Amino acid sequence: MVRYILQRLGQTILILLIVSFMTYLLVDFLPGDPIAAMTGGEISGETYDRLYHEMNMDKPVLVRYVLWLKDAVTGNFGTSQSYHMPVTSVIAERLPVTIYLSLMAFFISVPLGIVFGIISAVRRGTAADTVVTTTANVCCCLPQFWLGILFLYLLSMMLGWLPASGFVWPWENFVESVRLTIMPLLCLAVGGIASIARQTRSSMLEVIRQDYIRTAKSKGLKEKKVIYVHALKNALLPVITLMGLRLGGLVGGSVFVENVFVIPGMGSLLVNAINSLDIPLIQGCVLLIAAFSSVINLITDIVYVIVDPRIRVA
Amino acid sequence: MSHLLEVKDLVTTFRSDGKEFNAIEGVSLHLDRGEIVGIVGESGSGKSVTMLSCLQLISSPGRVAGGDVRLEGVEGNLLDHDAESETMRQVRGGRISMIFQEPMTSLNPVLTVGYQIQENLMLHTPGISAEDARKRTVEAMKMVNIPDAESRFDYYPQQFSGGMRQRIMIAMAMAPRPDILIADEATTALDVTTQAQLLEMIRTIAKETNTAVIMVTHNLGLVARYAERIYVMYGGHVVETASCRKIFHETQHPYTRALLRAIPRLDDPKDRILIPIDGLPPVPSQRPDYCPFYARCEYRCDRCKEHKDYSMKEVKPGHFSACCLTEKELADREEELKHKDYGASPERHLTDKDCLVVKDVRKYFPVYKGLFRQKVGEVKAIEDICFTLKQGETLGVVGESGCGKTTLARCIMRMYEPDEGQIIFHGEDVAHKKDRELKPYRPQVSMIFQDPFSSLDPRQNAGSIVGESLLIHKLSSDRADYEQKVDDLFRKVGMDPAMKDRVAHEFSGGQRQRIGIARALSSNPSLIICDEPISALDVSIQAQIINLLEKIQAEMGISYIFIAHDLAVVKHISDRILVMYLGRVMEIASCDELYENPLHPYTQVLLSAIPVADPVIEEKREAVSVQGEVPSILKRPSGCPFHNRCPKCTDKCVKETPVLHDAGGGHQVACHFC
Amino acid sequence: MSQTNSKTAEQLIKEHKAKHRRQFLKTLFSRKIAVASFVIVILMILAALLAGVISPYDPNVISITERTQGPSVAHLLGTDEFGRDVLSRIIYGSRISLVVGVLAVMIACVIGTLAGMVAGFFGGIVDDVISRIAEAIRVIPQVVLAIALCAVFGGGIVNMAIILGISNMTVYIRMMRSQVLSIKERDYIMAGKLQGNSSARLMFRHILPNSVSPIIVTMTQQIGGTILSEAGLSFLGLGISVPTASWGSLVAGGRAYLLTNPVYSLAPGICIALLVICLNTLGDGVRDALDPRLRGEI
Question: Of B31, B155, B477, C230, which has the highest C-beta tally within 10 A?
Fold first, then answer.
């Protein structure tokens, strides 16, 4: 068990190294001159050469990468060119907001998704099933940004129930915070509920076909017990993987919601960074988001091992 | 007289492509207390469907369409009770228990075995406390010989081997003390020695507890050994039933007769000809309304087609058959058939020339672990393999799972490079040649595979499958020559060349295997390795393929290495047999010598585990029992690999690995005591 | 053995193939919803092709007098801030969604399938390198990856397709790799090897043709998501640049005018959702129809 975790940890670090290298290379390909972008372009040739040398632009990519990585490991991603402060502090301001929203959305969508999935699997072929599956199929396809605008139009502009934009922490102003987060959370959770419900349903139906379910039935167990004791435990295992993927994706996926509702989170930061070609900030954001989702992957795998005896004891 | 279980005119239908068809049509059978009854039939004969129907376990798109099932102590027809009703649920598991074929998938992987047994027990034992149930669960586990039953209560199914899991299934089924145990191909997926152990155990437990057992199987040998009464099923009908002895010695129905003539037996004389049953079993949706066996029957007459009532009649006291012919007609026809020429067993061309000499071949597989793939150990797949094969000879290779027969085949095929040793093919050592140097070797050795469904590329048509070698090795001069050669190959394996444009899934299993044989022949090889070529086929088709292989060998003088776990088949087709156990050769001898005078204790166990389809001979045979199961190849015992299960084991066996030596007359054995 | 002569055998094969096609279509269109989806997708493709004919106005003609109007008889979906007809812009916008979606899926499929096949077939270090890179791409959420790639490649239809192709490719790598690993174990591949087939021949003649079904299924299931991603990038202003109309940028453009003409922003979103729903439903249908277990074969 410990061995397995260490091994997965090693793998995660390896993956992150590859990600960091890819990010570095990617940004290296960016059009435009980073020095010009940093200084605004109006500098003398001498200063340019000095900066060129200081930023190690004369060294090969690999060397620059290693130098950058050395700093990055210690938490130094350089200085953001558009915010004129260390990348780390820019991100530190934004990250908690996104994580807060993501986790909230996650904890709303998981139980609801599983419940809807079970209902539609157990009542397969009934009206309840049709309603759940159809709604889920539709909700999976709704563009998040459009959904946001729709809510904005209906709940804020037409009905005037909720404020249109902004973000406040609950400990700053609880009521306002709740009013502000309802719409973003709805947007974030809808897709999650739909996809978890779909996964739960299909994996339930898959499990019900297995031999051991026939064995359970041949013992004379009640249908309910067959489903809730024998089938559900097996069926929820693949859902864990999906939950991990959702959570990992939420941090990046909140881009649209943050954009629509003007929330100062990671997503809007990344878009700003791209629009202003703020290289250190792009690198920092991408790497951090990747790190977050790999850590979630790692946790998912560990949870999987704990709950799935097939892996645990094999 | 009332029976414990009585089934009358059971009909179950399935729906496919919008049409309904009968999977079983009017099956009737009965069962008395403490009796062991066998139901035999090929796949699709409806034997499992019958059992599942009685318990109302048929799931959509199937449904029980009619019939009458009565169980002693239950009011009325079982089928009138709702599948989910309390009565039906108490019958299932409580009165009638069932064990299924696949031990690997029949237990729930996320629940402990103890829980699964206990659950069944508590469900059908009113008022039992959880504590008592646990105690009885452990007892049940002990009853089926699971070591350390107490501590294994909390184990998960995947911590057990296949044989052990099936023991747990038995413990689970028997724990609530049912009246009837249904074993649906319960041992088919297991090794022969494990199979024998389990069935022996089921019989003992059943007799002790006076439980009736229904054995559902395709294996005639098993019913001959264990069943007291037998039902033979074909095409959704019971075609014959009688006591075990009568079925085998006063066989009535033409299907049963044909079956007995088609299967090879361990006690066969060397020159016995297998008489295959022509054609294929009928597909349920295209079954005629008269005798389902008509199209393949050698006794058929015009009257058969008009005889629509296909139910059984008592032909002799206690002996029922569904054939409409009278006993006299059958006997007359039998006499005629005796004179029919089935062709003698084909003439062989055994030569003195060595085709293949294998010397001290060893193959270990490294085991890697961890992020950086460090080597942490080795799987000792095969070691010290030595044998020779003459041109035109057939060497049978038998052994249970993990014995290394497949690794050996792949080493000879040079899919793997052996770590050590020589593989001398026609005087040339190919063991350590590079891929490029092997090019001239490839066409001379071919292989026939076990699974006819995975051995043919589903996207290619039969013609290009067969002809691919001709192209790769440039064996045909032009297009016309290529087509000609492909056509010839089709004819050689008894298929119409017109079928060469079809793709694999349009053929039946037997036809696919014929295409596989044609492919193996295409490069004109002098050695063919047959890896379990018939074990995936129905009993009635197996004889066709065996005969074809023999015919081809006689015509072309090819050598075969015939790998199988079924000793009866191996004995029928081989000149000599090589017995393997956990990667080592245990014994090599000619067929008759091995059967009459097995020297190695393992060979003796193996032979004794294989039942002969004849109850009289079965009774006379001496049972050699063995302890334990085949260990995993990863845990091979030191010294003689068989020592931990061998009754003759001594200190020497534990310390020293016996070497293969000649025990006289070319009979080689690896045992310290022979 | 059935003794059929060669002519009837040929007929049989033809019949069989026709039967398969019929059965495929029958399963695919057995549900009304799949038929409806198919019709809608075809209508949208037709609209995209015939945009010049069916659009009431030129999508890029500015009319100062008609700025930001609600729906009217003249402009069914109203006008935008430059007085351009929203309906015409939506009709032209379908071209971008469809072209980018199809192109991106094709790019992802070709690269991903090849990489996955090579990784699965050769295993060892080749597999390690490809799999690790794929995994590294996968831990970056797709939107983030696409956004980051936008910065490098810039907007435009072809660049968009490349960006979405790259960010979707890992799905095909994983699918194809596991597909190859399972096919590799089948006996016919071993038979092919033993006959002396080269690796390339084994891959392209035996493995690839046998992977066509899962590849098609993956493609049909990916196209909806890809269109959704394109719309998202355009919404953020990173994708297709103005003045070309794209559904995503239309939604973004209409945000500021929700009070005067809500249809401007909401209608293109409905189009995106409708197209994606229909494509996904069709994808599910194709999967069911190609699944041999449901067809009662093998």
Answer: C230
Q: Does the CA dihedral A228-A233-A235-A241 come out positive or negative? A: positive
pLDDT attached to residue C295: 37
- Contact yes or no for C210 and B458 at CB 8 A: yes
Provide, as residue numbers in chain C, all residues whose Cβ is less than 8 Å from the Cβ of B295: none
**B337 falls within a domain:** no
**Given a cut of 60, is residue C2 above it in pLDDT?**
no
Q: What stretches in chain B show pLDDT beneath 50?
A: none
Q: Which of B491, B483, B492, B437 is nearest to B463 (CA)?
A: B483
Are C258 and A145 inside 8 Å of each other by CB?
no
**CA B211-B214-B219 angle, 5° bins:** 135
Whole-number Å distance between alpha carbons of B576 and B580: 13
- End position of a domain, from candidates B193, B219, B248: B248
Q: CATH no. for residue B567?
A: 3.40.50.300
* Residue carrying structure tokens 């954009």: A259
Q: Is B260 within the bounds of a domain? A: no
Strands in B505-582 per DSSP E: 527-531, 559-564, 576-581
Residue B31 pairs in a beta bridge with B5
Q: Kind of pairing, strands B584-590 and B668-669?
A: antiparallel
Give the torsion through C-alpha atoms of C167, C169, C174, C177, to 10 deg.
-150
Query: Could you tell me how many helices (H) and strands (E) chain C has, helices first?
Result: 13, 0
Cα separation, A125 vs B594, in Å, equals 61
Mean pLDDT of C171-185: 90
Contacts of residue B438, Cβ cutoff 8 Å, sequence gap at least 6: B414, B430
Least confident of A161-170, B68-77, C164-173, C221-230: A161-170
Answer whether residue B288 is part of any domain.
no
Which of B415, B468, B502 is the closest to C190 by Cβ? B415
- What does the DSSP 8-state code read for residue B154? T
CB neighbour list of residue A161: distance below 8 Å, 6 or more residues apart:
A155
Nearest beta carbon to residue A214 from set B57, B123, B124: B57
Q: Which of A189, A255, A257, A195 is nearest to C221 (CA)?
A: A195
Full-model pTM = 0.81
Assess contact for B573 and B546: CB atoms under 8 A. yes
**What domain range includes position B523?**
392-402+432-669
pLDDT > 90 in chain C, percent: 9
Instruction: Give the per-residue pLDDT at B318.
Output: 86
Select from B275, B263, B236, B279 the least CA-distant residue to B539. B263
**Cβ neighbours of C136 in A, within 8 Å:** 15-16, 18-19, 22, 290
pLDDT range class, residue C264, cuts 50, 70, 90: confident
Could you state, in chain order, the average pLDDT of each consecutive group of 10 residues for chain A (314 residues)? 80 87 77 60 68 68 81 79 84 88 90 91 84 88 88 84 81 84 89 90 88 88 87 87 81 83 87 82 85 86 80 62
B81 falls within a domain: yes
Q: How far is the first Cα of chain A from the last one, in angstroms, to the nearest whole number?
A: 11
Q: Is B453 on the interface with C (CB under 8 A)?
A: yes
Q: Please name the member of B442, B498, B506 whose beta carbon is closest to the beta carbon of C195.
A: B442
Q: Which of B111, B120, B371 sits opposite A219 (nearest CB)?
A: B120
What confidence tens digit (pLDDT) does each residue in C12-22 have?
566 666 777 77
* Contact between chains at B100 and A214 (C-beta distance less than 8 A): yes
pLDDT surpassing 60 at residue C5:
no
**Number of domains within chain B:** 2
Subunit contact C298:B499, Cβ cutoff 8 A = no
Q: What are the structure tokens assigned to B296, written together?
A: 């393949």
* Alpha-carbon separation of residue A298 from A12, A60, A121, B530, C127 (angstroms): 7, 33, 29, 46, 21
Residue that terminates a domain, selected from B248, B263, B296: B248
